[in-house]
Amino acid sequence: MNYSSMKKIGFPISGRKGERGNWEEARPGGADLSALDLAVKMSQMGFQIVVILDNDGPTVDYIIRLGLDYVVIELPSIDKRAAFDDSVVEGIINHSADVERHLTSESIGTIHTNDAGMHRIWGALKQKLGFIHVWHERGLFQHPAKAEEFLLAAEMVLTITMFVRDRAPESIREKVIVVDDPITIDGVYDRKQDSYWLKNEFDIPLDAKVFTMIANGNKRKRWDMFFEAAAKSIKSDKRHYFICLGLTVRSEINDLKRRYISSDVSDNFIIAGYRYDALRIVSGTDVLVSTAKNEPLGRTIVEAGMLGTPMIISSEGGHKELLQQLSPFCLVENVNANKFKDEFDKVDELSERYVGVRDDVANSMSWRFAPERHVKSVANLYMSVLDFTL
To answer: Can you give the pLDDT at residue 142?
Structure first.
């Protein structure tokens, strides 16, 4: 099959399971959002884009609203924590005939993958089918040896920060290209109005200070540190309220609550799960918190900067690369729960320091992560490295 003659680019996305029409469940996660931002802008430039979904669930509605074409190709899911061996690869390759039929029908010759599962699935399929593979690393290059073979075979490897690039296998590091992510704020937000809404939404006193953390259940996020620091902070100041967004696995939540949240602090601790209005919460919160270890980037950190929300975050990985030049942010060095608690206790001081630089920070973030800037960089690479023409 001559895939180089097929000019459509496929963006594989892991769609949310469930019924169509549930808009609150349609919005994908952070890495997929960045990939879709890129897909939309490339489409507007004249590239032919097709989103490849692994199921016909509510994410289809989100793709349609973006105005992108899509195709559903059902493929086996990958447990990123399980062994990735020849038997797993064989299971993926067993679907190659069906995949080839879809790619040929849609004239898709290039696959642009954006997360660990899709890198592995489509890397295995490339071995069999031979399409062009753009590997866009938004994680930390933590892949099993078998997947590193696929990384070596990719025609182009992109990543999002120098921190991530420096973690690439030495054998391919020289060909890894750093391109800032596209991140935008959809809608209009007003911090004063959103703060009032937030406190009413979660039954929080209007004079309270609200700290919010948004993350999935990955151990790298260090929810245990957040829970411990929050519990200590509430005991020293009952005005402090803490909101957890994105933590949805009930067993993990119950374990953290049992370890850290005693009855005398439980009223100040809100586990909000998944919320489609997360950006409004970020706009309305007094402080965005991230205890994460070695984040590749931290999309929510960028969004908070654009919205003018102060932050207290770990000084590690992509966080440090993002914010080392921006003095108003509280970057916590050599992190532990007590250090975060101490910074929570200085929230009034942080808010005062932030007032004078809020606009400069928002403008800096908006310029660096402007989709137009990002898509021009990627488009130029498609044309110079892969010989695409518009």
So the answer is: 85
User: Measured between alpha carbons, how far is 349 from 227 in angstroms, rounded to an integer?
Assistant: 22
Mark whether 327 and 224 lie in a shared domain.
yes
Buried b (16+ CB within 10 A) or exposed e, 158-197: bbbbebbbebbeeeeeeebeebbbbbbbeeebebeebbeb
User: For the chain, what percentages of helix, strand and coil (3-state, to nearest 5) are there?
Assistant: 50, 15, 35
pTM here is 0.81
Answer yes or no: is pLDDT of 16 > 80: no
> For 253-271, what is each residue's pLDDT tens digit?
888 989 999 988 899 999 9
Model confidence at 317, pLDDT cuts 50, 70, 90, reads confident
**Residue 25 and residue 143 share a domain:** yes
Q: Are 129 and 203 part of one and the same domain? A: no
Residue 307 lies in a domain: yes
Question: Which range of residues forms the domain containing residue 355?
Answer: 191-368
In angstroms, how far apart are the furthest CA atoms of the chain?
67
